[in-house]
Amino acid sequence: MIQIPLITHPISHEEFYRDYLLPNRPCVLDRWITTGWVACNAWRSPSEPGGIKIQRLLSNAPSTKLCVADCSRLEFDAHPVVDMPMEDYLTYWHDFHDDSANETRVLYLKDWHYFR
User: Fold this and answer.
1) Closest to 96 in 3D by CA, of 85, 105, 109
2) Contact indicator for 94, 53 with CB cutoff of 8 Å
3) Alpha helices in 1-116 (DSSP H)
4) pLDDT tens digits, residue range 34-88?
5) Would 72 disulfide with which of 20, 25, 93, 106, CB 3.0-4.6 Å?
6) How far apart are CA 57 and CA 54, in angstroms?
7) pTM
């Protein structure tokens, strides 16, 4: 198993560039740097399904079609990708995280790039 380093204290831009960015080496940034990030405050919530404020995250473009991979299916050795209206994906998201719903599909909002 690959060990991914956790950066727990501030490092210089040069050190980050040399040790992680240039060699394309993954790392995890601790809260010392992520506390003020919008993504860590405005989009996350432990009380929301999946820990994400999905409605807020996708609120910039309510009529957008999302690029979604259906990971519960396989076609030609790949998961089929479909364009899905955001409203349909939000319904899926809430059903998937609701224990009483019968949602069995596993849909992945591909790369979270929902603008094509």
Assistant:
1) 105
2) no
3) 13-16, 31-34, 38-41, 54-57, 86-96
4) 888 887 777 777 776 667 777 777 777 667 888 899 998 888 998 989 888 888 8
5) 106
6) 5
7) 0.61
